[in-house]
Specification:
The complex is a heterodimer of chains A (about 150) and B (about 140). Chain A is an all-alpha fold and about 150 residues long. Chain A has one domain. In chain A, about 85% of the residues lie in helices and about 0% in strands. Chain A contains 4 helices and 1 strand, in the order H-E-H-H-H. In chain A, helix 2 runs antiparallel to helix 3 and helix 3 runs antiparallel to helix 4. Chain A is elongated and about 65 Å long. The termini of chain A are far apart. Chain B is mainly α and about 140 residues long. Chain B is built from 4 helices and 1 strand. The relative contact order of chain B is 0.10. Classes of the chains: A mainly alpha (about 150), B mainly alpha (about 140). At the A-B interface, helix 1, strand 1, helix 2 and helix 4 of A face strand 1, helix 2 and helix 4 of B.
């Protein structure tokens, strides 16, 4: 009796219902992962397109050289911005896909190590977005302080 | 009977619980900052629209200004509504997961996982829609050149 109580206190089981919910969660994580990776590729492609378009306007921008801006410079900035966006979406997509695949595999094979790796992938996914949120908040704060000061 | 039950049960190890706990923590942080961000977006969106409206009445601008102001308010409200629901589901996931891990309650764990599933589904569908708009924009840009 005591042993039963102790085991229920310190263990948690994934029953059939929880396994089913976790499996469908993993499937949607995979969908999100694949969509994010495709979006990342499109962002990088768009960055390259923006850079090439701006390079084509190089002659038209010569008059603005005095302001320190050149078409190729703007194009390079655009490329860098889109590549950063692409990297963010790409990495988060890989984390989501990894979490989805490993949770599914862990549940199918009853392998705890794979399931743990899947949970770690989900943690990495949310941690990445949370860290990006912290960085964005810091940047907003710095900009606000700059405009006020 | 007990064996049959065990066939459908996987016992969560401490390491799995620790990963779930950390996931819930990051998710709560994201949800709370997201909800605060949405609040700020709505306040600044409506505030700037009201400010523009008050300045445009003094300069007697035409109806286009009001349309732009209304568009600004509606736009910020739509974005806020779109991002509010994943934040809400994420917050529910993290709260229920914390409680489930503290009390070893399987039904709370199930509810928590359901909210995580809804969050992933919502974000997945939103990303696919974004992908569609992105692809359309790129096709439009390519064909116009």
């Amino acid at each position: 009796m005591d042993q039963n109580q102790n085991s229920s206190l310190f263990s948690m089981n994934l029953d059939a219902q929880n396994s089913y919910t976790l499996r469908s969660t993993a499937s949607w994580a995979k969908v999100l992962g694949v969509a994010s990776i495709i979006l990342a590729a499109l962002f990088i492609l768009l960055g390259i397109m923006v850079q090439q378009t701006m390079n084509n306007y190089e002659s038209g921008f010569r008059t603005y050289r005095s302001s320190g801006l050149s078409a190729s410079g703007i194009g390079a900035m655009g490329l860098a911005m889109y590549v950063i966006m692409g990297l963010i979406y790409g990495i988060s997509g890989v984390f989501a896909l990894n979490a989805g695949n490993k949770i599914n595999a862990g549940l199918k094979t009853n392998n705890m190590e794979t399931l743990n790796a899947g949970f770690a992938g989900a943690r990495n996914f949310f941690a990445l977005w949370a860290i990006l949120m912290i960085i964005s908040l810091l940047l907003i704060f710095i900009v606000l302080m700059g405009t006020m000061g | 009977m007990e064996n049959e039950k065990n066939l459908f049960q996987i016992e969560l190890e401490d390491i799995a619980k620790s990963h779930l706990k950390e996931t819930a923590r990051w998710a709560r942080f994201l949800a709370i900052t997201g909800i605060v961000g949405i609040g700020l977006l709505v306040v600044f969106g409506i505030g700037s629209a009201v400010y523009n409206a008050s300045s445009s009445t003094t300069t007697n601008d035409d109806g286009d200004t009001y349309a732009a102001i209304a568009g600004g308010i509606v736009g910020s409200l739509v974005v806020a509504a779109l991002y509010f629901f994943p934040c809400l589901f994420l917050l529910r996931f993290s709260n229920k997961m914390d409680r489930a891990l503290l009390s070893d309650d399987a039904s709370l764990l199930s509810e928590s996982l359901r909210n995580l599933k809804i969050t992933f589904r919502y974000m997945g569908v939103l990303t696919i829609i974004m992908l569609g708009f992105f692809a359309l924009g790129m096709i439009g840009a390519l064909t116009s050149n």
